[in-house]
Structure formats: structure tokens, C-alpha cells
């Protein structure tokens, strides 16, 4: 958390801005130096604000706040690198939310591995009327994730992740299998 930093000097000491009458007054200078000590971290934060807003540079506790800003739920089990990458790509992930690409990319960023998605929907066109519709009448989504060690994947968290990024009306199943060598 941001707070007092011992020994941090203020770039704008208040004592220098006081009228000349107080320049030699030790009590007044000590009093305003206490304000300088409190204000120095604020100035340092404001001077570094672009770094706070960059997910690759932001402090860890501020990164979680940035994730809230972009509507991205965080999981404490994710590494800091995963969290930084997810926040960095959150806007793009939201633009693909609910699509095959969006679901696969989200899973790749969090779990890793190779993601295969099978869904019931489809689209096509035909120059002839009464052409059979593609896809299936029963909505379904099947996600298969190929990872080196399937036992290392928390299936409940993966299922919750898929539930959070897929279309709400679409029932889904999740399968984790060993990666083919």
C-alpha cells in the first residue's frame, strides 16, 4: 500500500513558500516539514502516475485495483505475471468475450496449454432456398484443454472461468487432457 516512506523528501518543501517572516522560525519550519513528510509520497505517486496505470509496471496491490477498473475478476492463485498479462489484454479480451476466440484466449492466458473448442452453433449461406441449417438444435459448448500435467489444473476454477467468459445461455462441459508429445 502507498503510505509514508521514511526519508523521502518533498520536491516542493512548504517551508520555502512561507512568507519571509517564518523563514527563520524553527517551530514553523518543523511544523510544515511534518506536512512535507506526509505530502512527499503523494507527490511521488502523482509524478509516477503513468507507471501506476501501466499493468506491466504497477505495484501488485494497485494491479488488482486496475483489474477492477477494467471489469476483470482476479484469482489469488494466479501468478503476478499472469495477472499483469490479463489486465494488459483485458480490453481486447472483452471485445472478444463470448466468442470462440475470446474463450480460448482467456483460457490460454490463465491455464496455458492448447485449447480446443467445439460448439453447436454455425453460420453459412446458400443461393438455394430450403438449404439445411448448419450446427445443432441443442446448444452446447465443449472445451478441451491440453496441458502437460492435467492433475495440476484446478477443474473447478477452470469450469468457473469458462462459465464467466462464455455466453450465458450456453451449457458447457470442460475436459483437461494430457498434451500430445
Q: Which helices and strands occur, and which strands form pairs?
A:
Blueprint (H helix, E strand, L loop, with lengths): L25 H22 L1 H5 L6 H10 L10 H9 L1 H6 L4 H11 L3 E6 L21 E7 L7 H11 L6 E7 L3
Parallel strand pairs: 2-3
Antiparallel strand pairs: 1-2
Helix pairs in contact: 3-4, 6-7
Briefly characterize the structure.
It is built from 7 helices and 3 strands, in the order H-H-H-H-H-H-E-E-H-E.
Description:
With 181 residues, the protein is α+β, with helices and mostly antiparallel strands. It has three domains: 1-47, no CATH class; 55-94, no CATH class; 96-181, GMP Synthetase, Chain A, domain 3, CATH 3.30.300. Helix content is 41%, strand content 11%. It has helices at residues 26-47, 49-53, 60-69, 80-88, 90-95, 100-110, 155-165, and strands at residues 114-119, 141-147, 172-178. It has a three-stranded mixed beta sheet, covered by helices on one side. Helix 3 packs parallel to helix 4 and helix 6 packs antiparallel against helix 7. The longest helix has 22 residues, at 26-47.
Strand order of the largest sheet: 1-2-3
Report low-confidence residues grouped into runs of 5 or more: none
Order of helices and strands: HHHHHHEEHE
What is the CATH topology assignment of the largest domain? Answer: GMP Synthetase, Chain A, domain 3
N-to-C CA distance: 45 Å
Mind telling me the C-alpha Rg? 27 Å
- How many β-strand runs? 3
In the CATH classification, which architecture of the largest domain applies?
2-Layer Sandwich
What percent of residues adopt helix (DSSP H or I)?
40-55%
Number of helices: 7
Which strand-content bin applies to the residues? 5-15%
Q: What's the overall geometry?
A: elongated
State the major sheet.
3 strands, mixed
CATH class of the largest domain: Alpha Beta
Derived structural class = alpha+beta
